[in-house]
Design brief:
- Helices cover 36% and strands 23% of the residues.
- Helix 3 runs parallel beside helix 5 and helix 4 packs across helix 5.
- With 258 residues, it is of the alpha/beta class.
- It has nine helices and ten strands.
- Bound molecules: adenosine-5'-triphosphate (ATP) and magnesium ion.
- The site of magnesium ion has 3 residues, from helix 1.
């Protein structure tokens, strides 16, 4: 079988136990190459745990996580993880450029090749003019862009994002959503994106997965999977007025028990 037939990420009946409790109940999910999958669900339902299992930070207690057909047993450089807390993800004593360089150093990119790669990735996120600044001199949105740029510098195949825009104001969040959509398509990335915000999930996703409120029941954590058949490129106003957007919003809203 050729590699291209294998899913960039697959969960096969994955369960996760932590502290003697079943945090994720046996769940199966397969991402398609280039697909943007959003995970929503109430606080504590296991979203971060599922993402950590995908990254190889935590091992499933049952089932398997596969990447391109291989069992995930440890973190890999082909997988980038974007945290909500950009403040803690960046090194405060390194400049923007220095923070991006971390990814290249980890990948053992020769020092002479780094400057050009850094400039390129900073241009992609519109931060080239801020290369010499320190994280504390940037706004929250800009710091989060630096973290995303560092992930892109890693040239990952898969991006795992844990509420990356949760701490940002609404305007910044919308512009970063649009920027991320563009980058993901340009770079052909596969994304698993966790959010609390169901509008964000529908706006960004090709598919939205809802996790159950109480995953300790002997039911799969995954309670619903909805395809988002809204054309791209999406646009903040028009997309959010699209009949399909409104329909999915209502369905998920009721599902999440508001
Ligand atoms: N290392 C751990 N040991 C024991 N319990 C844990 C551990 N990590 C997470 N949990 C528990 O697992 C449950 C799910 O946690 P998780 O962080 O995956 O939820 P979440 O859906 O990401 O929540 P939030 O939306 O608040 O970020 C919580 O009850 C949490 O307390
Ligand atoms: Mg979480």
């Amino acid at each position: 079988m050729s590699m291209s037939n294998l899913a960039p990420l697959a969960f096969e009946q994955v369960s996760v136990h932590l502290g003697g409790r079943e945090i994720v109940s046996p769940s199966s999910l397969e991402l398609k190459r280039g697909e943007f999958v959003c995970i929503i669900g109430p606080s504590g339902c296991g979203k971060t745990t599922l993402l950590r299992a995908a990254a190889g930070f935590v091992q499933p207690s049952g089932g398997r996580v596969l990447r391109n057909g291989q069992v995930v047993s440890a973190p890999s450089r082909e997988v980038a993880f974007v945290f909500q807390d950009y403040g803690r993800a960046l090194l405060p004593w390194r400049t923007v450029e220095g923070n991006i360089s971390l990814a290249l150093e980890a990948a053992q990119v020769p020092a002479s090749d780094r400057p050009a790669r850094i400039v390129k990735v900073l241009e992609t996120v519109g931060l080239a003019v801020h290369a010499q600044k320190f994280p504390a001199q940037l706004s929250g949105g800009m710091q989060q862009r630096v973290q995303i740029a560092r992930c892109l510098a890693q040239q990952p195949e898969l991006m795992l994002m844990d509420e990356p825009f949760g701490a940002l104001d609404a305007m910044t969040r919308e512009s970063l959503q649009d920027e991320l959509s563009r980058l993901v398509r340009e770079q052909g990335l596969t994304v698993m994106f966790v959010t609390h915000d169901l509008e964000e999930a529908i706006y960004l996703g090709d598919r939205v997965i809802a996790l159950r409120t109480n995953p300790t029941a002997s039911q799969p954590s995954i309670a619903a999977m909805l395809d988002v058949k809204i054309p791209r490129p999406r646009e903040q106003l028009a997309t959010k007025e699209h009949p399909e957007f409104l329909r999915l919003r209502r369905e998920l809203y009721q599902f999440l028990g508001h």
